[in-house]
Every structure is written in C-alpha cells, then in structure tokens.
Amino acid sequence: MKLSVIGCGYLGAVHAAAMAELGHDVIGIDIDRARIDELSVGNAPFFEPGLPEILASATASGRLRFSTRMEDAAGSQVHFIAVGTPQKKGSYAADLTYVNGAVRDLIPFLGEGDLVVGKSTVPVGTAETLATMLAAAGTGAILAWNPEFLREGFAVKDTISPDRLVYGLPASQTAAATAKTLLDEIYSSALDAGTPVIVTDYATAELVKVSANAFLATKISFINAMAEIAEVTGADVTQLADAIGLDARIGRRFLGAGVGFGGGCLPKDIRAFTARAEELGRGESVAFLKEVDAINLRRRQRAVDLTVEALGGSVFGKKVAVLGLAFKPYSDDVRDSPALDVAVQLRGLGARVVATDPHAIANARKLHPQLDYAEKLEDALADADIVVLVTEWEQFRHLDAVWAGGLVKNRIIVDGRNCLDAAAFRASGWTYRGLGRP
Ligand code: UDX
C-alpha cells in the first residue's frame, strides 16, 4: 500500500521504516530539513537497536522515501499522523499545535476515501475534533485512531510485532468498515501472526494509550512508595517486589524500584491526563497521578541524599562517578531522565561529576555542558570518591566489584537501579547502598 507518515521524530521514523520493511511504499514527511536529509540516506537520527538496518535496506530499495514537502503525501491511500504532543510550557496540558497543524496542512492533499490515522498520544476528545475538521473541509477522508505502544529500545520489534492493535473507528458504519479494511491490510503480517485487535470508538482508543501509560507509571511509583517505607523499617524492597510479583495478578514487571521513570512519554503523559481530566470535570478520578508524579520525583532526590549521606554529609569537591545518563538502557534519550537529573543535582551541590553512558553522552552534553563526561567507564571510575549507578546498562549491571574497586579512591556505591549484586560488592570491601534496601 502507499502510505505517508507525517512527523519523523521517534515514533514516525520508526513507523515509516517498519511499514516499509513490511513491504509498503512509504513517504515520511517532516519539516526538519536536517533530519530528512539524514533519513533519506538511511541514517537513523537517534540510537535505536535494529533501526539502522531496516532504514538502510528500505531506503536503498526505494520503498521508503523522505521529504519536507507535505504535497508529497498526495497519492498515498493512508496517512499516519505521528507528530509530537509535548507538554505545554507552564502547564501540564499537551500541546496540540503540531497535531492540528499536520492535519490542517494535509487537508489540501487528501483524496476522497483516503484514511488519516492518528498515532500520536493525545488528550481524549482530540480525534473527534480532527474528524470534524476533515469533514468541514469537505475532504471525504476518514479518520481512525490507532495508538502506538512502542517502547524505546524495542521500538522496531514493538512496531512490527505489537502486543495488540487498537482501532478507534468513526461512528458511521460504512466509514468504519472502510477504515478497518485498510488497517487490516496494513497490519496483515501482525494479524496473520495472531495479534489481538480491539475495534472501538475514538475516545476509547485515545484513552487506552494514556491509561496504559498511567498504569505503568503507577506500578513503578507504587513500588517506589514501598521503597520509602522499606527505608524506615529496614525492609528490602527488591525482595518485597519478588514476593508480591509472584502473584500472577500483580506480576514482577515494572516493579523495579529505583530512581524512577523518565523519558518522553510516561512523565508528560500522566501530567497531560491529569490536565485533561480536570478540563472534563473529573480531576478527582486521576488525582492519584499527582502522587505518582511526586513519588517519582522524590526518588531522584533520595538518590542524591543517599550520595551526600554516604560521603559523610557533603559532596563538595568530591569526584562522583555517575554511571548512566539515558532515561533507560538501550536508548540515547535523556528527556526527563532521572539519571541526568541526579548528575545535575550533584553537580549543583559542588561535586565534580564525571558521567558516563554508552550512547547518551552527546545528548546529555547538549543540555548540560557543565558536567564532565567520560567515554570510558574506567575514566569515570578512576579515583572516584563515590560511584552512583543510575541507568542499568548491561555493562553497569555486570560491573566487576574487584576490578572497579581497584580504580576508585573509595569503595562506596549507590545503586540507583537496585541492579547490582549487593553481597558481591560488600564481599569486596564496598559500602553498598541501594534504594529501599537496608
Ligand atoms: C513507555 C511505555 O512502556 C510504552 O508502551 C509507551 O508507548 C511509551 O512509554 P518508554 O518510555 O520507552 O515506553 O519506556 P519504559 O520501558 O516503559 O520505561 C519507562 C521508564 O520507567 C524508564 O525510565 C525506566 O527506567 C522506568 N522503569 C521501568 C522503572 O523505574 N522501573 C521499572 O520496573 C520499569
């Protein structure tokens, strides 16, 4: 099928490449000329495992092209809207400027029966407004809402083989049937593999996405709240998580206590959900999400406090080796990263922070040139007064206590992701401090 993808940021670039990989003929459109130039020659603009390979093969085959001109979307049967919905400045609400702008600019190039598919994460009610916009312009195009659940680091796999597909379809039965037929054709390989499909209305589709992210954020903050209780009782939150996680109704995933969640989705999505619920007069229904956010931010502070405490009350002038900058492993994304926040706070307290990360240094440096960065782990560790692990990359999870002990000045480590073998570190003469652990 001929598809266009409007917006080639994280979501759009991966979606465009994945759709081309599935055999569709795809044009990706974005206003950012530099990004389009990179993508056109098959270069991924960010670190994402598997993306460079599919980008290179699809651009070389001619199945995937990129452009800055919206008119190049003309002739595609289906148009995906994959632009960003960032947090508005000075507010919790989502900024819909790009979504509204993308649809408005696409309208002149839409043909009768074209399908416009929203993938961006939006406040509930947005699809209805966009459908009205399309109808008022007399385009004859149909709108569907098909939220995306991809995780950074697993984005290609999540797009090609999703857990589930959600189709938010229009009320008109004829339009809904046309939209469903087109979506089924686009996703035929996932459907053949047995991926479940939830066929629903716009509002439900929009809410599935925000409520899924709200639930995940709540699960993380729940275990982090238990970590706070563990800290004043001598309990161990990692054992607690293992024990409650064995209850199949609860499950162990997303019960990793530590410095909490970050990234381009969970923090902004729970805030936008709160703002939207308040607009709808239902603020009390999701008031707990403010607690979820507050607990999450407290855990970064706790990692900083623990570091200060472990150094006897001050980090001033001390060398702090910070392991990790990305908001999570397998990503170079530092948006709202707890790791970067901890590094910046420690620097603010007068520490000489030397941070290292396998992929995120360049992005972190753009935002915080005041920090010192080391490309090599051993340079970060050399003569450090304390080590603070804040992103659980493989190489940090498997940090050898004896080897690292030979490099640092003091064998003190704060494990902000509870991912190290505490016993092995203690056996090698380290003072080990985890979050929510004795
Ligand atoms: C998330 C959703 O998982 C995805 O479905 C949605 O489409 C976009 O938002 P992503 O932001 O890529 O994806 O990351 P995710 O793997 O969900 O992790 C989010 C944050 O939670 C990370 O900072 C991670 O370190 C943190 N986290 C995760 C924990 O602190 N503890 C855990 O147990 C799990």
From TrEMBL:
<feature type="active site" description="Nucleophile">
    <location>
        <position position="265"/>
    </location>
</feature>
<dbReference type="Pfam" id="PF03721">
    <property type="entry name" value="UDPG_MGDP_dh_N"/>
</dbReference>
<keyword id="KW-0560">Oxidoreductase</keyword>
<dbReference type="InterPro" id="IPR017476">
    <property type="entry name" value="UDP-Glc/GDP-Man"/>
</dbReference>
<dbReference type="Pfam" id="PF00984">
    <property type="entry name" value="UDPG_MGDP_dh"/>
</dbReference>
<keyword id="KW-0520">NAD</keyword>
<dbReference type="GO" id="GO:0006065">
    <property type="term" value="P:UDP-glucuronate biosynthetic process"/>
</dbReference>
<feature type="binding site">
    <location>
        <position position="268"/>
    </location>
    <ligand>
        <name>NAD(+)</name>
    </ligand>
</feature>
<feature type="binding site">
    <location>
        <position position="85"/>
    </location>
    <ligand>
        <name>NAD(+)</name>
    </ligand>
</feature>
<feature type="binding site">
    <location>
        <position position="335"/>
    </location>
    <ligand>
        <name>NAD(+)</name>
    </ligand>
</feature>
<dbReference type="InterPro" id="IPR001732">
    <property type="entry name" value="UDP-Glc/GDP-Man_DH_N"/>
</dbReference>
<dbReference type="InterPro" id="IPR014027">
    <property type="entry name" value="UDP-Glc/GDP-Man_DH_C"/>
</dbReference>
<comment type="similarity">
    <text>Belongs to the UDP-glucose/GDP-mannose dehydrogenase family.</text>
</comment>
<dbReference type="GO" id="GO:0051287">
    <property type="term" value="F:NAD binding"/>
</dbReference>
<feature type="binding site">
    <location>
        <position position="121"/>
    </location>
    <ligand>
        <name>NAD(+)</name>
    </ligand>
</feature>
<dbReference type="Pfam" id="PF03720">
    <property type="entry name" value="UDPG_MGDP_dh_C"/>
</dbReference>
<dbReference type="GO" id="GO:0000271">
    <property type="term" value="P:polysaccharide biosynthetic process"/>
</dbReference>
<feature type="binding site">
    <location>
        <position position="30"/>
    </location>
    <ligand>
        <name>NAD(+)</name>
    </ligand>
</feature>
<protein>
    <recommendedName>
        <fullName>UDP-glucose 6-dehydrogenase</fullName>
        <ecNumber>1.1.1.22</ecNumber>
    </recommendedName>
</protein>
<feature type="binding site">
    <location>
        <begin position="254"/>
        <end position="258"/>
    </location>
    <ligand>
        <name>substrate</name>
    </ligand>
</feature>
<dbReference type="InterPro" id="IPR008927">
    <property type="entry name" value="6-PGluconate_DH-like_C_sf"/>
</dbReference>
<dbReference type="InterPro" id="IPR028357">
    <property type="entry name" value="UDPglc_DH_bac"/>
</dbReference>
<feature type="binding site">
    <location>
        <position position="152"/>
    </location>
    <ligand>
        <name>NAD(+)</name>
    </ligand>
</feature>
<dbReference type="InterPro" id="IPR036220">
    <property type="entry name" value="UDP-Glc/GDP-Man_DH_C_sf"/>
</dbReference>
<dbReference type="GO" id="GO:0003979">
    <property type="term" value="F:UDP-glucose 6-dehydrogenase activity"/>
</dbReference>
<comment type="pathway">
    <text>Nucleotide-sugar biosynthesis; UDP-alpha-D-glucuronate biosynthesis; UDP-alpha-D-glucuronate from UDP-alpha-D-glucose: step 1/1.</text>
</comment>
<dbReference type="InterPro" id="IPR014026">
    <property type="entry name" value="UDP-Glc/GDP-Man_DH_dimer"/>
</dbReference>
<feature type="binding site">
    <location>
        <position position="35"/>
    </location>
    <ligand>
        <name>NAD(+)</name>
    </ligand>
</feature>
<feature type="binding site">
    <location>
        <position position="262"/>
    </location>
    <ligand>
        <name>substrate</name>
    </ligand>
</feature>
<feature type="binding site">
    <location>
        <position position="209"/>
    </location>
    <ligand>
        <name>substrate</name>
    </ligand>
</feature>
<dbReference type="InterPro" id="IPR036291">
    <property type="entry name" value="NAD(P)-bd_dom_sf"/>
</dbReference>
<feature type="binding site">
    <location>
        <position position="328"/>
    </location>
    <ligand>
        <name>substrate</name>
    </ligand>
</feature>
<feature type="binding site">
    <location>
        <begin position="149"/>
        <end position="152"/>
    </location>
    <ligand>
        <name>substrate</name>
    </ligand>
</feature>
<feature type="domain" description="UDP-glucose/GDP-mannose dehydrogenase C-terminal">
    <location>
        <begin position="321"/>
        <end position="422"/>
    </location>
</feature>
